[in-house]
Amino acid sequence: MPEGMTVVKVGGGMLAEPGLLPRVGRALARLATERTVVIIPGGGPFADQVRQFDQRHGLPPTSAHWMAILAMDQFAWVLAAEVPGSRIVEDRAGILQAHREGMIPVLAPSRWLRATDELPHRWEVTSDSLAAYLATLLGADELILVKPVSGGTELVDDWFLRVAPADLRVQIVGAGEFSAGG
Questions:
Q1: pLDDT tens profile 96-113
Q2: Angle at Cα 152 formed by Cα 181 and Cα 123, nearest 5°?
Q3: What is the residue range of 172's domain?
Q4: Running DSSP on this structure, what letter comes out for residue 125?
C-alpha cells in the first residue's frame, strides 16, 4: 500500500442532519488531494434497522453481524454518490486500482470481512472496530473517525482499543468540524 495512508471511517449518524453529508463528501475529496485516503462507511440507519429487527425478532448473533456489515455496504453506496471522484471497491486490490487511477476508494467491506472474519459476531464490535481492523490490514498510518460529535476514545466501542494497534494515529472528529468549509 502507498506510504502515508489515511483511513477515514464515516459514521452514518450524520445523516440525521440534512445537508451535512454533501459537505462531508466535499471535505473527503479535498483530503484525498493531500493524502492517500480510503473511505470506510459506518452502518448508519441501515444498521439501525438491523438492530431494531434483531431486538424484535432475536436473530442469531452471526446473522445480525453479517446483516449489519451488509448495512455498511449500503452506506458505502451513499458515500460514493456524495464524494466527488470516488468509487466503490471491495478489497485491497480494488483499493490499489482506484489509487492508481486517481480515484478515491470507498470500501464496501462485506466481501473482505467475510474472507478474514477474525472478530466476534456481536453488537459490541461496531463499525469503528471494523474500521480499525481494516486500517491495520491496510497498514494505514492514520484512522480518522468522522462522527456526529468529536471527542476521545470514550466515543468508540470496547473492541476498538483491542483492535487498533498502538502506533495507529487515531482522530475522532465531529462531522461539522470535519466538513467546515465544505
A1: 999 999 999 999 999 999
A2: 105
A3: 5-178
A4: S
H or E segment to which residue 142 belongs: strand 142-147
Three-class SS state of 20: helix
For the chain, the C-alpha Rg in angstroms (whole number) is 15
Residues paired with residue 36 on neighbouring β-strands, in sequence order? 5
The pLDDT, as a whole number, for residue 162 is 85
CATH number at residue 73: 3.40.1160.10
Give how many domains the chain has, as a whole number. Answer: 1
HEC string of 38-102?
A: EEEECCHHHHHHHHHHHHHHCCCHHHHHHHHHHHHHHHHHHHHHHCCCEEEECCHHHHHHHHHCC
The model's pTM: 0.93
Estimate the share of the chain in helix, then strand, then coil, as percent rounded to the nearest 5.
55, 20, 30
Distance CA 135, CA 99 (A): 16
Question: Which backbone phi and psi does 150 adopt, to 5 degrees?
Answer: -95, 165
Dihedral-angle region of residue 151 (phi above 0 means left; psi in -120 to 50 means alpha; beta otherwise)? left
pLDDT tens-digit profile of 125-136?
899 999 999 999
